[in-house]
Design goal:
This protein has a single domain, classed as CheC-like (Chemotaxis protein chec, 3-Layer(aba) Sandwich), CATH 3.40.1550.10. About 35% of the residues lie in helices and about 30% in strands. A hairpin with a 2-residue loop joins strand 6 and strand 7.
């Protein structure tokens, strides 16, 4: 894996490009602030493990953000079923991680598992210092977090 600073920049660039091009949304990276978001919060968690590499990604998005992603991606303004939201967030994680791997010029044998997506209730934002990269964004006034970490 590239040095952390370069990896951090590649992840940020990937997030901005994917959200702008696929969802017509404009992410703003932000530092953690206890008053930035209202917790507890209903979210979706996507996790994927790299194959032939020790790293994994964890992506967390507010439920409301995933609904807006679905509306923008599918061009439909309606309430979405739980399974549709899971599929939308899984596809987002797929594209983000796939683009990150390409942009990082990782060896061709490095792939990743199909992202597993589950609902997640967050009681409060917790910093996790075991992550190599931990980024938080405000997207359409909603919470989004992406973290890269090594498997031990």
């Amino acid at each position: 894996m590239h040095e952390s600073h370069n990896t951090d920049q590649i992840i940020e660039k990937t997030i901005v490009q994917i959200f702008e091009n696929m969802y017509f949304m404009f992410p703003q990276r932000t530092a953690y602030s206890p008053n930035r978001f209202a917790f507890p919060m209903k979210c979706y968690l996507a996790q994927t493990q790299f194959i032939n590499d020790k790293h994994a990604f964890r992506l967390i998005a507010a439920e409301n953000l995933v609904s807006k992603m679905a509306m923008n991606f599918l061009g439909e303004k309606r309430p979405f079923e739980y399974t549709e939201l899971i599929d939308i967030f899984r596809e987002a994680a797929n594209v983000i991680v796939g683009n990150f791997i390409s942009a990082s010029h990782m060896p061709v044998d490095v792939r990743f598992d199909i992202p597993e997506v589950t609902p997640l209730a967050i009681a409060a934002y917790e910093a996790d210092h075991s992550y190599e990269v931990d980024q938080m964004y405000v997207i359409e006034n909603n919470f989004f977090r992406i973290a890269l970490f090594g498997r031990h």
